[in-house]
Design goal:
Elements lengths: L8 E10 L3 E6 L5 E6 L1 H5 L9 E5 L7 E6 L1
Parallel strand pairs: 3-5
Antiparallel strand pairs: 1-2, 1-4, 2-3, 4-5
Length: 72
Amino acid sequence: MNVKEKEEGVYGTVNEALPNTLFRVVLDGSGEEKLAYLSGKMRIHRIKVLVGDRVFVTLDPYGGKGRITKRL
């Protein structure tokens, strides 16, 4: 059984909801605005994310879109 690496991420607040489950998220600390999409498990279980929600975002190491993995 493979040991999954602990995913590095940051907390943020959803600023704007866009089509196709994309969101603009303002990251804590840096104040940077990042484009993020919902992870597969959140889509499968139909977890709703609304503007103003606090979320945990796993960032792409190459600077692309982030992935929202948890709603707080």
